[in-house]
UniProtKB/TrEMBL annotation:
Taxon lineage: Bacteria, Pseudomonadati, Bacteroidota, Sphingobacteriia, Sphingobacteriales
Catalysed conversion reaction: N-[(R)-4-phosphopantothenoyl]-L-cysteine + H(+) = (R)-4'-phosphopantetheine + CO2; (R)-4'-phosphopantothenate + L-cysteine + CTP = N-[(R)-4-phosphopantothenoyl]-L-cysteine + CMP + diphosphate + H(+)
Span list, region Phosphopantothenate--cysteine ligase: 15-229
Annotated coiled-coil segments of the chain: none
Cofactor note: Binds 1 FMN per subunit.
Cofactor: Mg(2+); FMN
Name of the molecule in the record: Coenzyme A biosynthesis bifunctional protein CoaBC
Family label: In the N-terminal section; belongs to the HFCD (homo-oligomeric flavin containing Cys decarboxylase) superfamily. In the C-terminal section; belongs to the PPC synthetase family.
Functional summary from the UniProt entry: Catalyzes two sequential steps in the biosynthesis of coenzyme A. In the first step cysteine is conjugated to 4'-phosphopantothenate to form 4-phosphopantothenoylcysteine. In the second step the latter compound is decarboxylated to form 4'-phosphopantotheine.
Signal peptide positions on this chain: none
Protein residues bound to CTP: 104, 114, 150, 164, 168
Length: 229
């Protein structure tokens, strides 16, 4: 087994992967969240581990389970906790793949008691921006580190993805096309376009998230190979 492992392409490479949604608490019983299932991130973590990488998976609330027993899972709830877990594991990580659907806004205060229904009117919750984890990692990227982000867009997809690639100092970005049926949050399939920092664009067919994870990992392996050459 030792000999087989040695031949795997990502042996000795430490990777962190974020997955799933974040939940931003409003009061003890309510939160702001989103429909991310975590499937894509878990599939990437499994594939990286299968290829020999030392994987830490930082996941928001998700029902997914890792298939690879070597994946180290850190469960978090909020965007702030996800940031903290990323920072704890970032310095010695060669690869960072941020596939989580992190909340952009979080309530300014968390009510300590359940908010009671009032007579008349609606309820307004004041929010503040969360830290953009991916941009923070991009701003602090060390030489040799490889940073991968995702973009979920509904319009002006490629230009928005390229803007994110540049703004967040990424090596490549995975654009999720929601316009296609069978692609997105809850499905088992995804349709992606990879755009790298040379602005080279590759569009893939609709396929299972496990196969999408393979395509993403092959892109990583090809970048690592070019690095060595
Ligand atoms: N991301 C992050 N931390 C945040 C917000 C986003 O790490 N607080 C990461 C996501 O994991 C993803 C990438 O940034 O890899 C893009 O997320 P997306 O929501 O598409 O982009 P935003 O920059 O948040 O812009 P917008 O939601 O306005 O499109
Ligand atoms: Ca966002």
């Amino acid at each position: 087994i030792a000999n087989i492992r040695k031949k795997l392409p990502l042996v000795g490479i430490k990777a962190i992967v974020t997955a799933g949604p974040t939940y931003e608490a409003i009061d003890p019983v309510r939160f702001i969240g989103n429909h991310s299932s975590g499937k894509m991130g878990f599939a990437i973590a499994d594939e990286l581990a299968r290829l020999g990488a030392d994987v830490t998976l930082i996941s928001g609330p998700s029902a997914q389970q890792s298939k690879q027993r070597t994946v180290k899972r850190i469960d978090v709830t909020s965007a702030a906790a996800m940031l903290e877990a990323c920072l704890e594991n970032y310095t010695d990580a060669k690869l960072c793949i941020m596939s989580a659907a992190v909340a952009d806004y979080t309530p300014v205060t968390i009510a300590t008691q359940k908010i009671k229904k009032q007579d008349g009117g609606g309820l307004t919750i004041e929010t503040k921006k969360t830290t953009d984890i991916l941009k923070f990692l991009g701003d602090n990227k060390q030489p040799g580190q490889l940073l991968v982000g995702f973009a979920l867009e509904t319009n002006n997809e490629e230009q928005n993805a390229i803007d994110k690639l540049k703004r967040k100092n990424l090596d490549f970005i995975v654009l999720n096309s929601l316009s296609d049926e069978g692609a997105g949050f809850k499905t088992n399939t995804n349709k992606i376009t990879i755009i790298d920092k040379q602005l080279q664009k590759t569009t893939f067919d609709l396929k299972s998230k496990d196969d999408v994870a393979k395509d993403i990992c092959q892109k990583i392996i090809s970048i690592l190979k070019n690095e060595k050459a």
